[in-house]
Amino acid sequence: MHRLVILLFAVLLIPAPIRGEVLDVEAQNVIRRGSRIEAQGKVVIRGEGILLTANYVVYDTITEDLWAAGDCHLEEEGGELDAQLLNYNIRRRDFRLENGSVFIYDEPMVISGQRVLRYGEDVYEGDGITFTPCLGTPPDWSIAAGSLRAQLEGYGSAYNTRFKIRDIPVFYVPYLLFPIKLQRQSGLLFPEFSHSSDYGYRVGIPLYLVLGRSADATVTPTYLSNRGLLWAGEFRYRLDEEREGLIYGESLFDRKGGEEFEGGVSGRRIPDHRWLFKALQTGGNLTWDINLVSHADYLRDIGPFYGDEQTWKDPTYQGGFGDDRDLEELVSRVQWNLSGRKFSANISGQWTQDLTVEDNDRTLQELPRLRARMRSQKIPYTPVLVTSDLTTVRVYSRDWIEAVKNNGEIEFSMPLSFHPYLTVMPSFTEIYRDTHITDHRDVFSDDIFREHWQERKVLLTTALYSRRFMDGLYHQMVPNVSWAYRSRYGGNYDPADPLDIFPELLGGDEWEKEFDFELALEHYIRDRSGKSLADFTISRKYSYIDRDWDFFEARLRLNPVSWFSAQHTNRFGREPFRDYATHEHWSRLTLRDTRGDELYAAEEYVRGAVNDTTDAVETKSALVGVKAVLVRGFSARYEIEYDFLDRRYEYSRQGITYNSQCWSVDLYREVEPSEGELPRETTISLTVNLLGFGQVVSAQREFEGGQ
After folding, report:
1. Helix/strand/coil for 501
2. Is residue 439 within 8 Å of 432, Cβ to Cβ?
3. Helix or strand run (H / E) with residue 204
4. pLDDT of 91-116, one tens digit each?
5. DSSP secondary structure of 76-118
6. What's the structural domain count of the chain?
7. Pair 170, 191 in one domain
């Protein structure tokens, strides 16, 4: 066997300069012809970040092209390929292969076909292509196309496309656009299918539209066999690095229009035309979050069908809908902010849609709200800090009440540090409030209710660190002492009078004087990395109103080892003006292993007030759940909740999940108890997810009476 080492940047009887590092060529026979080097028989080439094996290789030292034939196998950073014929450029990383496949590590992704080309390191195209993230042979699922073009971290487009499970074609699409994410192209996205006992069979075909470098849209016509044609549209945009937003809407002319909606709070009939609208902009000085539906029962019956899944789940974007179909209200906000180093100001408006009533005319709205704040800063030539906060807001309803509320606060404080572990913070706060109310029923027409408050507070904080008491473990103790005194002077109303009528306007301060004294003690045990292995906090507050200690609260969190964690919260105390005590405690214990098996149990007990009830409301329940990893990707989950007071099972869920390398199936059964005259409800759901394509099948069936 001959070995030829090509030293690049040197002249080895080759008339043209050779670029690169070092190529090590091994073969049974090596021949040099000018700038070309031919290698035959068990060829192995190393260097330039590649490893190539083949039966025959030709290398051009000027163009840095490699031609290989016969059982070609090439490994490079990020992937590898196999082919019968291969043309590879070392400098550009371009290649062309015939009758071969490409395996991309990071995605993962396998592209195979009669002809596959790559430009640079991320653009692929070819003929007679099969695309799949599955690594088996044959793959669990794949997309076969007559021709394909794909940009990694962008989008792929394919013609004459067949979706295959194993080797069996399932359906055909003339043209398909699928996400791999960056390079955007307009076209059809992957179709969406599901079934429900309510809306029947659902078939949606999303159309993706590129509207510029910083804007795109998705339009999705969806056929619901029991309800009609639903149109959904989502427009997304980015103005700059900080400001981005979306506009989303749904519209449905419902075949069930005129029928009474079962289970709705409003109890009215289903309208013929139903719609949902959301507009959101985040970042920058001007932001808004608008959430509207055509009627109170829309979310319970239809809900948001589409939109980017991550958008709806992200708390930053939810604002209104989220995943909760039992919302009692939708809130829309618009806000403009002005912020500086020492001052900030904003103007905002808020509109609320009450989903528990048919008529929204008596729902309180806020428009406008003005707020100006001065950040904490020193008074010149003194150690005193000053902070102020001024707010005015107009609150109104269409046919009931209108009020203007003015609040002003100014705080003076002086932090005193006596030791690295001790800080004392005395403060004094002046608070002014007035509310001008106009009642359209002429009960409190044009009345002004004023309050003046003063607050004096002292906060003492220490941080005590122990030495290492075990190998690698440290203990920290943080005691806190807070003392506050508030008093109302002036004012022209009896808190028990309009407060009962306008709690939304005048709530919060029902006493002439308030004295609070709070003690808290925090313990932390940490390892060398700073991770907390055990936290324990206790606190207690004394209330002048009750002439007694208020609520006692204790929190414990343990996570000493990877397989064990526990949490417990205990809170109890006497309710003001009531002859019973509130007691709450909640606990959770979790055991897990490295396989993914998990056993957890939770317990909750609450005894206390709910809203304005005079009697104590009591709940006591326990939750037990187990997740077990079975064999070959299967896992099972069982969860049940028991109500000890009603002596019944409140909720149960059983399910089994199969996770493959490139797809998963989730089948579960959920049972909820009967409520009043409503029968027990059982839901069976089947969800199929394909890696890289999201949820493609979601079938759900609901039964009554526990069938």
Report:
1. helix
2. no
3. strand 200-204
4. 888 899 998 888 887 767 888 888 89
5. ETTEEEEEEEEEEETTT--EEEEEEEEEETTTTEEEEEEEEEE
6. 3
7. no
Residues 253 and 142 in one domain: no
- Residue 308 tokens read as 């980017």
- Kindly state whether residues 519 and 384 are assigned to the same domain: yes
- Residue 649 placed within a domain: no
Structure token pair of residue 205 = 């075909």
- Residue 245 within a domain: yes
Residue 502 β-bridge partners: none
Cα torsion angle, 16, 21, 23, 24, sign: positive
CA distances (Å), origin 156, targets 106, 139, 149, 189? 17, 19, 6, 10
Return d(Cα 700, Cα 193) in angstroms, integer: 11
The residue whose two tokens read 């719609």 is 275
Question: In this structure, what is the dihedral angle of CA atoms 198, 204, 210, 216, given to the nearest 10 degrees?
Answer: 10
Tokens of 250: 């749904």
Q: What is the pLDDT of residues 572-630, one digit of tens each?
A: 876 555 555 678 889 999 999 988 899 999 998 887 754 445 566 788 889 999 999 98
Residue of 373, 221, 354 whose CA lies nearest to 295: 354
Of 191, 249, 262, nearest to 222 by C-alpha is 191
Residues 172 and 197 both lie in one domain: no
**For residue 499, what pLDDT is reported?**
44
d(CA 251, CA 221): 10
Residue 658 located in a structural domain: no
Helix or strand (DSSP H, E) at 299: helix 298-301
Per the structure, the complete domain to which residue 240 belongs is given by: 186-360
pTM above 0.90, yes or no: no
Residues 6 or more apart from 80 whose CB is under 8 A from it?
Answer: 73, 74, 102, 103
CA atoms within 13 Å, Cβ hemisphere of 201: 2
Q: Give residue for tokens 């404080």.
A: 413
Q: List the beta strands (DSSP E) in 489-579.
A: 513-526, 532-543, 548-561, 564-574
